[in-house]
Amino acid sequence: MPYRLFIVLAFICAPAIIRAGNLFEVSQGVIRFYSDAPRELIKASSDQMQGVLDVKKKTFAFKVAIVSFMGFNSPLQQEHFNENYMETPRYPQASYAGRIIEDIDFSQDGEYNVRAKGKLKIHGMEQERIVNVHAIVRNKHINIECDFIVPLADHNIKVPRLVYDKLATEINVSVSAILIPVN
Amino acid sequence: MPRLLIAILLFLSFTAGAQEPFVRHVWLNESNTPVKVNDIVQGPSGKLWMATDAGVYYFNGRAFTYIPDSIHKPATAIYVDKANAYVGYIDGTIGIVTIDDIIQRVPVSNIAPHSAINSIYYDAVNVLWVCTEQQGVIAVVNNIGVSCNTSNGLSDNFVYGIVSYHNSHIAAATDQGINEITLNNHTIRTRVLNTESGLPDNIIRVLKPMPDMDLTWVGTQNGGPAIYSALNRKAWVPKLDTAWVWGQINDILPMQGGKAWACTEEGYVVELQLKDSTSITTRSIAVPGRKIKKILCGRSGIIWCATNEGLTMITSEYMEYIPLATSYKMNEMRAMACDRQGYIWYALENRLYRMSLRKPGRPSLEMSLPVAVTTLYVDMEGRLWIGTLGRGILYREENGSVTAVTDVPQLNNENVLSITGTDDRLWVSGLNGVEELSYPGQFTKKISLLQRHNKRTGVGSDYVYQLCADRRGRVWMATDGAGVCLYDGGVYRHWDSSSGMNSNVIYSITQDAEGDMWAATLGNGLFRYDGNRWYQVSRDQGLQDVNIATVAANGTGQVIVVNGKGVDVWYPKSLQFRNYNNRGSINIDSTSTVLNLSAVDNDGNVYIPFEKGFVVFKNIAASYDIRPTVAVNSLSVFFKRIRCGTRYFSHDQNHISFNFIGINFANPDRLHYRYKLEGYNDGWIVTSDEGATFPQLPPGNYKFRVQASLNNTFSPQGESVYAFMVDKPFWSRVWFIVLMGLVAGSMAYGYIRFREENLRKVTSLQRERMMFEYEHLKSQVNPHFLFNSLNTLTNLIEEDSEAAIDYTTHLSDLYRYMLSYRDKDLILLKEEWTILENYIYIQQSRFGKALRLNVKVPELMMYTRKIVPLALQLLVENAIKHNVVSQSTPLTITIEAVDDNIIIRNPLQPKISKEKGAGLGLINIRKRYSLLTKKQITYGEKNKEYVVILPLL
Prior knowledge:
Chain A contains two helices and nine strands; from the N terminus they run αββββαβββββ. Chain A is α+β, with helices and mostly antiparallel strands. A five-stranded antiparallel sheet of chain B has the order 1-32-59-58-57, with no helix packed on it. A five-stranded mixed sheet of chain B has the order 11-15-14-13-12, with no helix packed on it.
């Protein structure tokens, strides 16, 4: 009986906890990537990034739908990207979830360099990654920016020999997002 | 072809500059596709064990062997010791490698790991420590897991590894600093060291204790290396000579003397040298394109890197090279030497170059002489002595001033071959013998000739190719035609073909770090002098070629031999050469054929020129061993694989094959073996196969012994021994033989007993019969019977002479029958009946109607059944004897045959006086029956009748 009571209480109190301002969510976010191969430069970006950050627990989870990446050189390129490399129908999302290593008080305005450590899941393959993040906290808005590299081999993304010089083995990814408190 | 498995990529980037190791990538599979190696460890037999994304492998230097498992997940951690090999997987599964090289799952109850295992370690008290990504540290004892995590006070649940210290505390490397864990009275106490305690970063990726100091290396994610003292429970960052720019440290390999190798995610191997525990000097080696996960140093000195694509081997511990982009070929130089200030000097024709060894770079041209330079020597004062072709010698002081030696006229036109120095003498050899000179006077700079040594004075030859001053101040001369000559305080000693050396022409002579002399001959290889005699050291010990150009020794006992096929390095502990050539191992070719071309620097490192630079044979403080080892891998009975470790074979499992694997990383292509089976054959069999089969082994105890070699030096070091027994078949085992003996004995005994019993029976039967006959005859000649019979006869003669004749006939018939059947065991019932009829006739003649006989015996039985003779007669006689027979009380005797018996009965009408000898007849009949059959006779009183039942046979 006390256990059930606890669950009921937790449900009632949960919104209050959220309102207490521990949770931030992505209001605007852009993920860009580019592949700098000898014979082809591929660029694309997505603004469909979603995610939350718990500044108290210092945990986070972000995701993006692969199909939302736009801005390829040609529709054919986008088709190859989704069908051949990313196998988007099978693995529709990429995600990164984990925690912040540094003990930073995000309620204080300022600029911070923190490390995010977690599982980066692309193409269905998880890799433990540490990403350096530059965070600016101003007026209860958290602005985050980071760059990292995704080696294709780490995520079992196979590149046919024919297009080997059209696709880099390591893809540069940059993320910038504004997080606001969840109301 | 196992060698095909190893594809070699040699990074010889000729950017003039720093000293570099030879780096070789080794792929795990034939297709050269990357396999991510997460952990690497060297097992007790020398095999390299790897935990990879594709499972577990081991490597013997030639080929990779996959260890099958049923887990099918990336292996992330591995631990191997003498008795156990444990594997950790990405999903938290723990595997154990069985003796048959198969991985089995280790079940864990209570708290089982379910997140990726970062490291695994089995300690001396049988605790398996498992460091996980989400559950902290799990200690497994007897398959029960106990965890230490944030609920016990750990600062973070992501644990990379642990170190246990003698003072019973454990340090764990976590994402939130170093956790010191102490176990006191079953309570876990933790203390955290982090950036506030002096660490450069909170993510502690590795902790590795130094082998010879009470300090531990700390590797961090973005703060480089640091030091942790388990004794003082504190951590600090020593001052680095340069900012840490090589990225996330993944592993650290601690060496002796504060040295360590750190490897990074960004593809660097960084040599760290700790000085006074407060500062670190660094030197980086780039391994482009590789993320180096783990690093270890093998027994032969190779540094092995576990990378995201496979393995990478680095030669830094024993050999490096200095690539030089010169317009000339470096192997065309004529002479070289190292000075005290850290420069290497070398001469090409008449040009003298110098290069700093501390900061190797483009060599500078220091001098151009009018004639070609032939030899260089640096004395203890730092003077560089220069020998020339036809113009004698000159010298260069450390301050740069150059002086030609003109004080000694004999030298002025000399073709100098070699120069050396003792404490106060300079020795110069040429084509006119050896000149013993004084060093230049302090003020006068004058050099004087002290003595000449040549063919006439006792050297035996005027041509001396090389001079070598040993540590006792004696001078050794390599002569052309007179062997080795030692000049020792006025006395010449000689060794040539007449005293153990195969040649009189000696090109090179050198003293090694242990004090032994090494001499190279013209075409007859190398000789080593241990102070007593010269020993040939040649192809048997792995020398590649007997045409030797240069012999040099480093500071720790290694001897470097440059020959026609490459370079060989003598490993004194292993007593053999490590080979370098342009095939197989490290790609060194184009070494010089110029005689005696090498230089040793102040640290004892040896420099040998090759076409595009110098090869540096390092003065190794650690003693590496290049001898191969061998391990028995599997065994089969009749070609069917059985459990490795089986020691007992039955007599019909006597076709046994062994498979073994040699392990060597120095020169694996030269691996071959010899084996013998002690108890079967005492001779060694040399083979290059990795297996041996013994068909039809007779029963016995055996010891299979196999040794590996890279040349012709086999030694018990590193051998593998497998003892086993083939049992005797059960029929030749002791217990069976004893049992068979017992059985045969008891059978013989039984037979003898049986026979004896039979004989006894027969004799007793005979005796009984004789007794009976006697008794019977006695009874028949009973005077009563005769008297009665004769009385009856007398009466009959008077009354009826016809009947008397009849009576007499019956009486004589009775006696005749009794006599004729007495010695028979059995007679037909009919025969017995005839006797009885005669007897009855006689008795009825006497008793008349007082004796009646009632007979119910079927006629058929008379001729088919048998009976002991005279039994019926005796029983009837008994009945008459014991009962009243008179007219008033007649006696009726009934005889009837029923089934298998004949029954004789009569009503009881006993006489008042008993006749003598009563009862003997019945006992006699019973005895006779018992000798013939198991059927019993019965007799006794029943319903006022006396009944006797005799069995019919």
